[in-house]
Amino acid sequence: MDFTKPETVFKLENIRNELVKMEDSIIFQFIERSHFPTNGNVYIENNAKLPLGDFDGSFLDWALMHLEVTESQLRRFESPDETPFFPDRILDSILPSINFPQILAPSAENVNYNNKIKGVYIKEIVPLISKYDGDDANNYGSVAMTDIQCLQSLSRRIHFGKFVAEAKFRSDEELYTKLIKEKDIDSIMEHITNSAVEEKILQRLTTKAEVYGVDPTNKESQRKITPEYLVKIYKEFVIPLTKEVEVEYLLRRLD
Ligand SMILES: C=C(O[C@@H]1C=C(C(=O)O)C=C[C@H]1O)C(=O)O
């Protein structure tokens, strides 16, 4: 898939191949996070234990916002597959624009699920992938940086739903135009759903987690991340959120 060549992006097979590649990144970032406890202090907004001057938010928010400001100046968010968590804080790039061809509908940039993704990650995913419930003040920085890697990978994977939706729209423009005009959300969700693909993804994740997630040097074969938890994360959060993005993108496709 090459974002400078739209014809490579509109092929659903190419998009699905990209989603498969993202599984490895997400698994390995979850494994990194599994070295640390939950460290709930990094998620508490305006936490007296982690003073941040006049910044309004959590330690994680502070780290993520500052990183995104730098990344924006290095052209990260010009790429159509990157969606910022702090769209109002990012800056113009200091690098010349690549001028990617228009691939998605102009309304695509308004489909930003990152606040919801961050909430689900903190509330639901961190308790599943972290080492134990607890706090280790020596690792606040490491946890924030690891969380940022996980969040940016999850964000890219879930917002890839925009490309999936565009490919599906182009595959049956008449049907989707009708459903969009009727604002028939349930029918749109039904038509973008492919249960066979979802099942294949969950089966592959189980195998990958069994291979990647076990430390071969550890005699007790202690798992770094359990296959059951990885499947649960995808089944209950990653895939549903991707489909929400697909539906939201399509509802705005004709704007
Ligand atoms: C991404 C797609 O759309 C939907 C979402 C999927 C996912 O998030 O993994 C898989 C299949 C579909 O239900 C697709 O059709 O490939």
UniProtKB/TrEMBL annotation:
Highest taxon listed in the record's lineage: Eukaryota
Keywords (A to Z) from UniProt: Allosteric enzyme, Amino-acid biosynthesis, Aromatic amino acid biosynthesis, Cytoplasm, Isomerase, Phenylalanine biosynthesis, Tyrosine biosynthesis
Predominant location: cytoplasm
Catalytic activity reported: chorismate = prephenate
Protein's GO biological process: chorismate metabolic process; L-phenylalanine biosynthetic process; tyrosine biosynthetic process
Isomerase in keyword set: yes
Assigned GO CC terms: cytoplasm
EC number: 5.4.99.5
Pathway: Metabolic intermediate biosynthesis; prephenate biosynthesis; prephenate from chorismate: step 1/1
Compartment annotation: Cytoplasm
Pfam hit, one: CM_2
Family annotation (InterPro entries): Chorismate_II_sf (IPR036263), Chorismate_mutase_AroQ_euk (IPR008238), CM_AroQ_sf_eucaryotic (IPR037039), CM_II_prokaryot (IPR002701)
Molecular function GO labels: chorismate mutase activity
Record domain Chorismate mutase: where: 141-246
Function: Catalyzes the Claisen rearrangement of chorismate to prephenate. Acts at the first branch point in the aromatic amino acid pathway where it steers biosynthesis towards phenylalanine and tyrosine, and away from tryptophan.
Subunit structure: Homodimer.
Name assigned to this protein: Chorismate mutase
Source organism of the structure: Maudiozyma barnettii
